[in-house]
Design brief:
The structure holds 2 protein chains of 2 kinds.
Chain A: H1 2-15, E1 21-37, E2 40-47, E3 51-61, E4 64-73, E5 87-97, E6 100-108, H2 110-113, E7 137-145, E8 153-160, E9 169-178, E10 181-193, E11 196-209, E12 212-223, E13 226-238, E14 243-252, E15 259-269, E16 274-284, E17 290-301
Antiparallel strand pairs in A: 1-2, 1-3, 1-17, 3-4, 4-5, 5-6, 6-7, 7-8, 8-9, 9-10, 10-11, 11-12, 12-13, 13-14, 14-15, 15-16, 16-17
Chain B: H1 2-23, H2 30-35, H3 39-42, H4 52-75, H5 82-86, E1 91-95, H6 102-120, E2 124-135, E3 138-148
Antiparallel strand pairs in B: 1-3, 2-3
The chains are: A mainly beta, B alpha+beta.
């Protein structure tokens, strides 16, 4: 309950300061899906990373800005997540200068952010976190981000304190974005996730060729539970102004031996901020997982 | 004659270019910007004050600000410009899309000033600062303004 008041309080404080550039944003994403998990099937209503947040900046002196983001997840389907109406997502406070940004809080590591937009079924059953690790949002993280003025390159280095677990971790990335091309390389060392402290590196590429967007990702993992690698590819075709068709495939032995994921789907743009979507996903591995999902949903952004 | 012809052609081209530029969507939805890998470098680049919940909440804060000023006016001498006083003081920042030539820069600057004036209505927009940043796609002009009744 305290968290609710905190979120609403922050929202109220932000809105009560008209001289600051504050943006309220969010999205609702809900889907009705038929899940067939290892032979047992059921109809499910799922909320896919629905959220609300505020972000903004305020110049405190010549060339120095305070930037902030407070983002909370909300479950459209259940109304709460483990008793919490709002769950913490990306939250930080930082200082931005011409030499770069220093920020601290609870947010996605550089490795997670390096994936860019190659995951076309992000937050659905076909999410790449099914086959690769390193998609972490961590607590007690301090990060430096290079300034936008250095051109198409963005470098990030993050230090995760040993406060959460016994080991401090480091995550870093270098991304290049120029017109239709996006390239990124990222590395994690001793970053704690559900597989313990892990070391990994990740390479990402995406290219937009007219109405077609191609994406690929490779990851090599070395953790407490073993090692492995995985790859992933996606293709998106903007058929018309309204219709987008998309598909992605991934294979890895990182999360499980012989893990494979295949998704196909389509988006139909209902308005500038709202879309309807359909998808079908198949996930399997050598340990007997053989799951199928078919769903239809809607997403509204604001 | 040739000079006039060139002037007319230039104005027509400028009008068409202006409409095309206005039709573009330079900013993605705010939630996508917040989710992007370089969000911290672009956090102040787009003005979302007239979009989605921001528009609704902005209207609400204006209504809340309006009440005290009306109460003050009724308890003392009538204010000379109550319509202007009913609008809250407001400062904001607008950013252009990247431009790579002088004409584009002039056009983008005009659009930013026009937008600032529209957002301040019925007050006037006082331009406080103009910032120019060099990026890979060209110059990005940022205008900071303040709404005033002066």
């Amino acid at each position: 309950m305290q968290r609710h008041f905190l979120a609403l309080g922050l929202l109220a404080v932000s809105l009560a300061q008209p001289t600051q550039a504050v943006t309220v944003y969010g999205k609702g994403n809900v889907a009705l899906q038929h899940a067939d998990e290892s032979g047992e099937s059921e109809l499910q209503l799922v909320s896919n990373a629905s959220r609300i947040g505020v972000m903004g900046s305020e110049e405190i002196s010549e060339g120095i800005e305070v930037i902030y983001q407070f983002e909370y997840g909300t479950e459209i389907d259940d109304g709460d997540s483990s008793g919490q109406t709002f769950t913490q997502r990306n939250i930080y406070l930082g200082l931005k200068t011409s030499a770069g940004t220093l920020m601290a809080g609870n947010f996605d590591t550089p490795t997670k952010k390096a994936q860019g937009k190659v995951d076309l079924f992000d937050n659905l059953e076909g999410d790449i976190k099914n086959i690769v690790t390193g998609d972490n949002r961590v607590k007690n993280i301090v990060q430096y981000v290079s300034p936008g003025s250095i051109g198409p390159f963005t470098a990030k280095v993050a230090y995760i304190t040993e406060e959460t677990d016994s080991d401090a971790g480091v995550s870093a990335s270098l991304a290049y974005k120029q017109d239709a091309l996006y390239l990124a390389a990222a590395i994690d060392q001793d970053v704690e996730d559900n597989k313990g402290a892990t070391d990994l590196y990740r390479l990402v590429g995406a290219y937009t060729l007219g109405s077609v967007q191609l994406g690929a990702l490779y990851e090599s993992f070395d953790g407490e539970t073993g090692d492995g690698d995985g790859y992933f590819g996606s293709v998106q075709w903007k058929l018309t102004d309204k219709w987008i068709l998309k598909s992605q495939y991934g294979q890895s032995d990182i999360e499980k031996e012989g893990r494979e994921t295949l998704s196909v789907g389509g988006d139909y743009k209902l308005s500038k901020s709202t879309k309807a979507f359909v998808y079908a996903t198949h996930n399997e591995d050598d340990n007997g997982r053989d799951d199928d999902y078919v769903g239809v949903g809607m997403e509204m952004k604001f | 004659m040739l000079k006039r012809y060139c002037l007319v052609c230039g104005l027509i081209w400028l009008s068409v270019w202006s409409l095309t530029a206005l039709a573009q969507e330079p900013c993605e939805p705010a939630v996508d910007l917040a989710d992007s890998f370089d969000a911290v470098n672009r956090i102040g680049d787009c003005d979302y004050s007239d979009q989605g919940l921001n528009k609704l909440l902005s209207g609400r804060t204006q209504a809340q600000d309006k009440e005290p000023s009306q109460q003050q006016a009724s308890s003392s001498a009538p204010a000379p410009d109550t319509q202007a006083q009913a609008q809250p003081a407001h400062s904001a920042r607008l950013a252009s899309t990247p431009v790579s030539d002088g004409l584009g820069y002039t056009q983008q600057r005009f659009q930013l000033l026009q937008r600032a004036a529209q957002l301040c209505q019925p007050l006037k927009a006082e331009i406080q600062r103009q910032l120019v940043q060099y990026g890979s796609d060209g110059l990005v002009l940022t205008v900071e303004y303040h709404c005033t009744s002066q």
